[in-house]
Amino acid sequence: MHMALGLPVMLVGVRFSRPKKMKEYMGYVQNLEDGVLGHCDNNYVDSKDMAVDVVMLSLRTARGLDLRSFGEAFGGSLVLSLCEAYRQYVESGHVVCLDEQGSTITADELSSLLSNED
């Protein structure tokens, strides 16, 4: 999914557009980073929409997705679901998981961590 000014998106059955002006778009992105839910073009953007945007935008940055902050904003169960969904990509090497010290977490370590959460 590509993010662009004014790009209409269909998420969870709701169509909405991101702000068309750069200043408004920058505010929208800042709200995403801050975990603030809001409205966009008079179409309500719910927490599921926001979570998808946060994941997709974060994975396009060098910093990546901070699972601790994401969990605080959207809940631990969503973090577990997300880790389960990305497990195959960790195994294939397409997604790299890092611990808080910046060391790589292997697919086996990730599986172990996920099984301990059950």
Fold and architecture overview:
The structure is a single chain. The chain has 118 residues and is of the alpha+beta class. The protein folds into two domains: 1-64, no CATH class; 75-118, no CATH class. The chain has five helices and six strands; from the N terminus they run E-E-H-E-E-H-H-H-E-E-H. The protein has helices spanning 22-34, 47-58, 67-74, 76-92, 107-117; strands spanning 8-11, 14-17, 39-40, 43-44, 97-98, 104-105. The strands form three sheets. Strands 1-2 form a two-stranded antiparallel ribbon. Strand 5 and strand 6 (104-105) form a beta hairpin. Helix 3 runs antiparallel to helix 4 and helix 4 runs antiparallel to helix 5 (107-117). The relative contact order is 0.10.
